[in-house]
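Could you please review the protein record set out just below?
***
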Amino acid sequence: MLTSVAGEGFSWRAGEEIDLPGAEAAKWADGVRAELVRDAPVETPEQPPAVERAARRPARRKAAPRGTE
C-alpha cells in the first residue's frame, strides 16, 4: 500500500503488503493507493524467440492483350 486505507472490515497501512485476488489487486494498484508486487519472478524465455520471415510471392504476370497472338 502506498497510502493508508480503511473501510468496513479492513484497515491497511502505508507500506503494508496485502494479498488480494488478481482483479481486485489491479483495481487498487492505481499508482496512488497501491502498486502491484509479485512474489514469483516473471518468467522469461531462455532464448529469444526465432525471427519469423515471410516469403515473397512471385509477381503476377500480366496477361497479354487480347487479339495480339
About this structure: The two ends are 82 Å apart (CA to CA). The chain is about 10% helix and 10% strand.
